[in-house]
């Protein structure tokens, strides 16, 4: 009973306290309502916390704003200028939004007095330049949005008064230059967005001021290359986004040097290959997005340094093939999105282990449904396809079938492959003189179409370049054969179902050691294997002796013709006889006879000139 009595006493005290609190709150509300100042004209106010003056057709900032306001919304008006100390009475304001106005001028110290302001939005105005000191008096500002203006340049010390600023959004401007000291004073900046500018180079010197920057976004810039050491001072940067740079074709080998990124995005650019060399040191990279670049191949064993990579996105590219071992070494790899490409298959050998893979985007690819994709169907219950199941397109039997449509019973008979078979297995043995060119043929069939490769006598793979090279049609070409090329070469036809091989032999006859003949034609295409069954002893229609005889006959014919012409001209000239006088020239020289006559008479002297024609 005593315990119950004490409990009732505590309840009574609690009720009296609650009533007292309610009375005080009511009195406070009544007092507030009695002392509340009127809301400015064209504005709407809410308990002195929010002053909403949007869409009010205001040409200037209202004068009688509440001093205790926390949020001021001046969007969608006709304000053109912010004068000196425009908001000096709003010391408690936390957020100011001046977006969607006609702002063209912000005077120095226009925001002086807003010492509590955390967010300032000036987006979608007509600002062309921000004068030094415009942001004075904003010691606690954390977010600045100046997107969609007409800003041309960031001059030195533009943001020097914003020591607490953490994020700048400067997207969609007309920036052509960022001064080296423009970001001086931004000692707390974590995130920077620069978008839609006319910059043709990364402002590396300006970025050195941002020692704690963690996220950097470049969009729609005029970059055509990313030079070495572009970001080497940004040691704390974790996220780098470069997008919509249609002229960006290459990343220099050390362009990302000094970075320890966890996320890298290079989208909507013009990269034709995965930038393996710039990426190799990013051992902490988790997220990589190279979508909408004309990348055609992901080669094998070149991404193994990205030990922590979990996601790779390459959507909307020109991917033709993902090589075996492309993701070897990536033990944490969980997501691959290669939708909207030109892939015909994706083999399990591309991965370190398909067991770790959780999400796979393969839709909108011309997939050939054969045994190479059997692993995808078998693991479909463990994989997410992003809501778009892969579809067969190259097989007439399975055209437009979705992977999820296959049943376990149907799989063995539908997704099949056929082992390669080399068509003509007749032995090819070729004997050829030194300096000639030889071609060996190797054709095979299978499903999928086999890949043809060649091994040299030392069993090393041959490449499509060099003097001994593989051709696109599967043939092997040995140009200007040398004695050291002797041996047995091996053609290997392989696909997912297995392989087949064929051996061919080459014997090169070296020049005799005493041969001094300078007319030896080393580059003559002497012995091509016209078909897999060609005998290596076949002789060519022209040898060196025949060529020498033909050259001698031609020389003698030419010399004889010229000699006959000269002899004919000689006898013709002799038949014309002596050359007659062809011209007579008369002239009147000064003479002693004429002078003695006192100039009264003329004395003419005649001379003949004979010209001989040869």
Can you offer a commentary on this structure?
The chain starts with a helix and ends in a 5-residue tail after the last strand. It is an alpha/beta fold and 614 residues long. Helices cover 14% and strands 21% of the residues.
Short description:
With 614 residues, the protein is α/β, with parallel strands linked by helices.
Ends distance = 161 Å
What is the fourth-level CATH superfamily of the domain at 46-222? Answer: Ribonuclease Inhibitor
CATH architecture label name of the domain at 46-222: Alpha-Beta Horseshoe
Q: Which percent band covers the strand fraction? A: 15-25%
Number of strands: 34
Quick tags:
614 residues; alpha/beta; Leucine-rich repeat, LRR (right-handed beta-alpha superhelix); 15-stranded mixed beta sheet; four-stranded mixed beta sheet; 21% strand; elongated; Ig-like domain-containing protein; transmembrane helix
Topology record:
Layout: H1 2-35, E1 44-46, E2 50-52, E3 71-73, E4 81-82, E5 95-97, E6 105-106, E7 119-121, E8 143-145, E9 153-154, E10 167-170, E11 177-178, E12 191-195, H2 204-207, E13 215-219, E14 225-226, E15 239-243, E16 250-251, E17 263-267, H3 276-279, E18 287-289, E19 297-298, E20 311-313, E21 321-322, E22 335-337, E23 359-361, H4 374-378, H5 411-414, E24 418-422, E25 428-433, E26 438-440, E27 444-447, E28 451-455, E29 468-470, E30 476-478, E31 487-495, E32 498-509, H6 544-574, E33 583-587, H7 592-596, E34 605-609
Parallel strand pairs: 2-3, 3-5, 4-6, 5-7, 7-8, 8-10, 9-11, 10-12, 12-13, 13-15, 14-16, 15-17, 17-18, 18-20, 19-21, 20-22, 22-23, 25-32
Antiparallel strand pairs: 1-2, 24-27, 26-30, 28-31, 29-30, 31-32, 33-34
């Amino acid at each position: 009973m005593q315990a119950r009595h004490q409990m009732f006493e505590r309840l009574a005290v609690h009720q009296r306290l609650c009533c007292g609190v309610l009375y005080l709150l009511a009195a406070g509300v009544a007092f507030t309502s009695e002392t509340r100042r009127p809301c400015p004209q064209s504005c709407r106010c809410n308990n002195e916390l929010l002053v909403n003056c949007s869409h009010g057709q205001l040409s200037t900032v209202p004068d009688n704003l509440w001093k205790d306001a926390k949020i001021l919304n001046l969007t969608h008006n006709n304000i053109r200028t912010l004068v000196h100390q425009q908001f000096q009475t709003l010391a408690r304001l936390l957020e100011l939004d001046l977006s969607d106005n006609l702002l063209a001028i912000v005077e120095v110290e226009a925001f002086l007095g807003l010492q509590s302001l955390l967010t300032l939005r000036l987006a979608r105005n007509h600002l062309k330049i921000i004068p030094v000191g415009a942001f004075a008096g904003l010691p606690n500002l954390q977010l600045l949005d100046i997107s969609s203006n007409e800003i041309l340049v960031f001059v030195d010390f533009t943001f020097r008064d914003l020591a607490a600023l953490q994020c700048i959004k400067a997207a969609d401007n007309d920036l052509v230059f960022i001064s080296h000291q423009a970001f001086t004073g931004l000692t707390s900046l974590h995130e920077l967005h620069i978008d839609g500018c006319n910059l043709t180079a990364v402002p590396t010197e300006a970025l050195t001021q941002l020692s704690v920057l963690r996220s950097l976004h470049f969009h729609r810039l005029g970059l055509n290359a990313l030079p070495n050491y572009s970001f080497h001072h940004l040691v704390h940067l974790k996220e780098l986004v470069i997008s919509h740079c249609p002229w960006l074709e290459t990343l220099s080998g050390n362009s990302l040097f000094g970075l320890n990124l966890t996320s890298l995005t290079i989208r909507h650019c013009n990269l034709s290959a995965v930038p393996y060399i710039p990426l190799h040191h990013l051992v902490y990279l988790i997220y990589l997005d190279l979508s909408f670049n004309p990348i055609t191949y992901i080669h094998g064993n070149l991404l193994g340094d990205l030990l922590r990579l979990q996601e790779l996105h390459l959507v909307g590219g020109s991917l033709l093939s993902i090589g075996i071992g492309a993701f070897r070494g990536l033990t944490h790899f969980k997501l691959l999105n290669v939708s909207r490409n030109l892939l015909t298959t994706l083999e399990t050998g591309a991965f370190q282990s398909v067991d770790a893979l959780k999400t796979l985007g393969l839709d909108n690819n011309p997939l050939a449904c054969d045994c190479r994709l059997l692993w995808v169907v078998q693991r479909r219950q463990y994989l997410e396809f992003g809501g778009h199941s892969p579809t067969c397109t190259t097989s007439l039997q399975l055209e437009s079938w979705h992977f999820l449509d296959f049943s376990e019973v149907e799989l063995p008979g539908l997704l099949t492959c056929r082992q390669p078979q080399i068509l003509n297995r007749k032995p090819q043995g070729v004997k050829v003189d030194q300096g000639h060119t030889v071609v060996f043929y190797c054709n095979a069939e299978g499903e999928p179409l086999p890949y043809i490769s060649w091994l040299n006598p030392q069993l090393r793979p041959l490449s499509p370049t060099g003097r001994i090279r593989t051709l696109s049609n599967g043939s092997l070409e040995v140009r200007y054969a040398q004695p050291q090329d002797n041996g047995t070469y091996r053609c290997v036809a392989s696909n997912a179902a297995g392989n087949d091989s064929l051996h061919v032999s080459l014997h090169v006859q070296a020049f005799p050691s005493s041969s001094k003949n300078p007319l030896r034609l080393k580059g003559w295409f002497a012995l091509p294997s016209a078909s897999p069954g060609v005998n290596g002893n076949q002789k060519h229609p022209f040898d060196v002796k025949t060529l020498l005889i033909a050259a001698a006959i031609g020389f003698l014919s030419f010399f004889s013709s010229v000699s006959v012409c000269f002899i004919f001209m000689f006898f013709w000239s002799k038949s014309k006889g002596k050359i007659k006088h062809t011209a007579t020239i008369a002239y009147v020289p000064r003479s002693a006879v004429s002078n003695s006559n006192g100039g009264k008479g003329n004395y003419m002297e005649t001379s003949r000139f004979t010209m001989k024609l040869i």
